[in-house]
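cron nightly-structures :: item 1 of 1
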Amino acid sequence: MFGFGPAEQSQARELFDAMRHAVDHELTDRQRQVFIAIVVKRVPLDALVVGLNTNRNAIYKTLFDARGKLRAALAAKGYLEVGRG
């Protein structure tokens, strides 16, 4: 995976699993929907605005909050240093 050795592959898999768990269990349904649409599926912001019948600022705020929750969850599990993004 990505030219990494077995130890790095294992660490990457653990991080991926922790991220997936955080997305599934830490985010609200709306945050999960927005995060997956923008980050995973790469839905253009304006298309998401129309699809969710909302505005850009609401999407930005939802994504900002979701990223904060994910960052906190990963930091709590030791994947990120506290105070760093």
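cron nightly-structures :: done
Residues 23 and 70 are 7 Å apart (CA to CA).
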